[in-house]
């Protein structure tokens, strides 16, 4: 049996009549740009997040970029981000002309280590960008406290954590701004690119609504220099169908994670991810650690089990960020774990049998050595 890393087709087949109908309605109305489906989605997503405002944006990266701009982050400013994240978190910061200041991860959570943030604050620091990586919520209380102490803005990158809760509250709503990606493989994925910004603040929501749409207050009246970073109406129509299933899908992912962890727990050489309290991890990815990761991945591939590394090269070692002047030992946990992490197959429709096949292959690898 082959186990795919992710299978989007199963989900589409289950939603097909509803999705096809929703897309056909947009095509029939020809209201392709900021149509009523976008407004519907924005209302529904804000309600889902239990926050004031949500705005449909063209992608997760664009959501982060507009979020930073709306907070007034620009050249000369520094933004604190984790060293272990997807490149987009850093690209958003450099994209607005600011400098990313990296902080090492806590190896227990894979997320930014709150205890190391304060040492990274300088007079130029404008904002902190916690990233809820792999779907695991960051420990936000100490981060919000540092922000309060130094008068910093907080912009959450929740691109892998749609629906996760921190102490009862949805992530993406605890700071000034929360950003989401609807890249197809995300927990809530569109059928193309898409993203959103959430905020409890009306002033920021208004500013982002302008910035995403040419900086216009009303048609052809431009109060500032903006962008074209709007969520496509067709994507909003797809998201309206899929949002209703997000809680169930996240529940499935958590069940898969619990099953993986139970089955993997006695296999030597494999470290499983922490399972925090229910809701605090939505398992966009289920990431294990092995000191023989590359051999393990090759072995699994030969057995038909697909895995991916998120991410093989941390930000501080990417060629694109050579100008930050970092060495591997600047962020020792991130550098070390980049050689050990491995994401196992994870999607809501994954079967118990596929999990068992995956674990059996990992056990066989462990026993063969
Ligand atoms: C996917 C992702 C993004 C970027 O989203 P796009 O929609 O692909 O632009 C940003 N940050 C993180 C952590 C992500 O996983």
Give the key terms.
single chain; 369 residues; alpha/beta; seven-stranded mixed beta sheet; two-stranded antiparallel sheet; binds pyridoxal-5'-phosphate
Walkthrough of the structure:
This protein is of the alpha/beta class. The protein contains 11 helices and 13 strands. The strands form 4 sheets. The protein has a 7-stranded mixed β-sheet, sandwiched between helices. The chain has a two-stranded antiparallel sheet with strand order 6-7. Helix 1 crosses helix 7, helix 3 (60-70) packs across helix 4 and helix 3 packs across helix 6. The longest helix has 22 residues, at 8-29. The protein is globular and about 70 Å long. The chain starts with 7 loop residues before the first helix and ends with a helix. Residues 59-61, 85-86, 88-89, 131, 157, 159-160, 181, 183, 193, 195 line the site of pyridoxal-5'-phosphate (PLP).
- Helix segment tally: 11
Ligands bound to this protein structure: pyridoxal-5'-phosphate
- What's the alpha carbon Rg, rounded to whole Å? 21 Å
Shape designation: globular
The low-confidence parts are: none
Strand order of the largest sheet: 1-9-8-5-4-2-3
Derived structural class: alpha/beta
Determine the fraction of residues in helical runs and give it as a percent range: 25-40%
Whole-number mean pLDDT? 97
The fraction of residues assigned to DSSP E strands is: 5-15%
List the secondary-structure elements in sequence, H or E: HHEHEHEEHEEEEEHEEHHEHHEH
Number of strands: 13
Major β-sheet profile: 7 strands, mixed
Distance between the termini: 23 Å
């Amino acid at each position: 049996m082959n186990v795919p890393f992710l299978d989007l087709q199963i989900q589409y087949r289950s939603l097909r009549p509803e999705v096809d109908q929703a897309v056909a309605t947009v095509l029939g109305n020809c209201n392709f740009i900021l149509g009523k489906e976008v407004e519907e989605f924005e209302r529904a997503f804000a309600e889902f997040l239990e926050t004031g405002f949500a705005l449909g944006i063209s992608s997760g990266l664009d959501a982060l970029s507009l979020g930073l701009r709306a907070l007034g982050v620009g050249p000369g400013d520094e933004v604190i981000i984790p060293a272990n994240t997807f490149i987009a978190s850093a690209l958003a910061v450099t994209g607005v002309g600011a400098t990313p200041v990296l902080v090492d991860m806590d190896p227990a959570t894979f997320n930014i280590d709150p205890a190391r943030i304060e040492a990274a604050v300088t007079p130029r620091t404008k904002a902190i960008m916690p990233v809820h990586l792999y779907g695991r919520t960051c420990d936000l209380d100490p981060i919000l406290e540092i922000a309060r102490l130094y008068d910093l803005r907080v912009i959450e990158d929740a691109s892998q954590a749609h629906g996760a809760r921190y102490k009862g509250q949805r992530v993406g709503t605890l700071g000034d701004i929360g950003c989401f990606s609807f890249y197809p493989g995300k927990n809530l994925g569109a059928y193309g690119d898409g993203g959103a910004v959430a905020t409890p603040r009306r002033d920021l929501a208004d500013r982002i609504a302008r910035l995403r749409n040419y900086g216009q207050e009303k048609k052809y009246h431009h109060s500032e220099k903006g962008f074209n970073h709007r969520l496509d109406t067709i994507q909003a129509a797809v998201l309206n169908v899929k949002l209703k299933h997000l809680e169930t899908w996240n529940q499935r992912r958590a069940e898969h994670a619990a099953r993986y962890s139970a089955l993997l727990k006695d296999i030597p050489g494999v470290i499983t991810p922490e399972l925090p309290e229910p809701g605090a991890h939505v398992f966009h990815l289920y990431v294990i650690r092995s000191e023989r990761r590359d051999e393990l991945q090759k072995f699994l591939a030969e057995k038909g089990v697909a895995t991916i590394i998120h991410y093989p090269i941390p930000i501080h070692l990417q060629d694109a960020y050579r100008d930050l002047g970092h060495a591997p030992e600047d962020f020792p946990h991130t550098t070390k774990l980049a050689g050990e992490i491995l994401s196992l197959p994870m999607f809501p429709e994954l079967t118990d049998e596929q999990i068992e096949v995956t674990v059996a292959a990992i056990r066989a690898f462990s026993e063969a050595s």
